[in-house]
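Exercise 7b. C-alpha cells:
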C-alpha cells in the first residue's frame, strides 16, 4: 500500500486524478482496477496532528525527483519519514506487514539521510511525542534482525531517558524468538 499525504484543500482533486487513472474507492483505500499497489490518502501525518504541525511537515518536505511524477509532488523529509515508519510499525503493522522494516532499512542506507539527519531534533521529537520506547525498539530490531547499521552513539542518545531496565526489556522484545 502507498500512503499519500495530500493537503486538505487538494483532497477531492487528488481523488479525482486517481479515479481518472483507474483507481476505485474501496473503503478508505483506493485500488487499481487492473492490479497494482493500493493507495491510501491522508490529510495529516497522524490523527493527533494540528494544522500547524501539518504545515511544518509540508515545509520540511523534499521536492520529488522521480521523472514519472508531476513536479509539484513532494516526499516526506527523511526525519518525518523515519517518524512515520516508526509510528506505523509500532502502533499498526509490526507483525501484520513487515514491509516497514525494508523501508526503514532503505532509509538508513540512504547516504543523504546518513549525512544530514537531524538527530538532535529527532531525539527531541521522540521524547515529546512519546516515541522514545518505540524508536528504541525499532532500532534494536533493525540492528539484530536485518543488519541495519545504527550507530551506538544514536542508540545511546535515544536510550538514555529510558533507563537500563526499560532498555533491557525493550531490547529483549526486539528478538522475534521470544514473541510467541
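Sequence design result:
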Amino acid at each position: 500500500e502507498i500512503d499519500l499525504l495530500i493537503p486538505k484543500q487538494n483532497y477531492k482533486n487528488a481523488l479525482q486524478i486517481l479515479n481518472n487513472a483507474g483507481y476505485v474507492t474501496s473503503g478508505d483505500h483506493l485500488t487499481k482496477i487492473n492490479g497494482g499497489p493500493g493507495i491510501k490518502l491522508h490529510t495529516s501525518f497522524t490523527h493527533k496532528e494540528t494544522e500547524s504541525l501539518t504545515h511544518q511537515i509540508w515545509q520540511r518536505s523534499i521536492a520529488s525527483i522521480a521523472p514519472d511524477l508531476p513536479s509539484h509532488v513532494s516526499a516526506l523529509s527523511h526525519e518525518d519519514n523515519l517518524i512515520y515508519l516508526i509510528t506505523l510499525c509500532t502502533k499498526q503493522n509490526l507483525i501484520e506487514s513487515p514491509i516497514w522494516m525494508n523501508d526503514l532499512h532503505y532509509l538508513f542506507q540512504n547516504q543523504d539521510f546518513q549525512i544530514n539527519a537531524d538527530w538532535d531534533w529527532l531525539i527531541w521529537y521522540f521524547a515529546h511525542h512519546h516515541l522514545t520506547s518505540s524508536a528504541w525498539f525499532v532500532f534494536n530490531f533493525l540492528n539484530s534482525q536485518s543488519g541495519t547499521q545504527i550507530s551506538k552513539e544514536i542508540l545511546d542518545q535515544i536510550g538514555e531517558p529510558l533507563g537500563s531496565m526499560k532498555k533491557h526489556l525493550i531490547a529483549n522484545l526486539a528478538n522475534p524468538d521470544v514473541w510467541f
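Instructor comment: The CA atoms of residues 57 and 147 lie 30 Å apart. The chain has nine helices and six strands.
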